[in-house]
Amino acid sequence: MFALLACALALGVSGCQRRTVQAAPPVIGTPQPIENPPPAAQPASNAGSAPETSPPATQPAVNSAPKPAPRRPSPTPKENPEPEPSAPPKPAAPQMSQQLSPADQAVYERKTNEDVAAAEKNLERAYGRELNAPQHDLVDKIRGFLGQAREAIRASDWARARNLAQKAYVLSVELANSL
What we know:
Number of helices: 4
Largest sheet: none
Order of helices and strands: HHHH
Oligomer: single chain
Mean pLDDT: 73
Radius of gyration: 43 Å
Structural class: mainly alpha
Shape: elongated
Helix content: 40-55%
């Protein structure tokens, strides 16, 4: 009994062959409305009188093959294409910087110059030494931050310059400690 149940369960789980179902192609045209009802649908009140002679209504065939979509001609390239007007170049995005009072600006300027000098001094200690990969990475980052800090100094963006100089200084201290 158990074996028979197991076989029936195995057959039920395995299922039957898979059939691929294909969708019918879409009907491209729209069906025309029926203007006259078919003759059988007319009322039977005229049973004793002569039948009316009206032309039979033409109904579109429902199972007719769909008409292919009309082909559009491919665009031909112009022999002398007109040059498209070029868009004017976008202006550079304005730099948003903190508005500093003259006293704060002097403090930022002094601290920025101190950090840049200290970072350069620590970076000089690494010149001529054999550096490993992490130390080379630190040197590259320090040089990048120092370059960006100098650009910010030239733009008189002292808050940004101070931030970048601090980053260069912190990394340079880490580099000096690893030597």
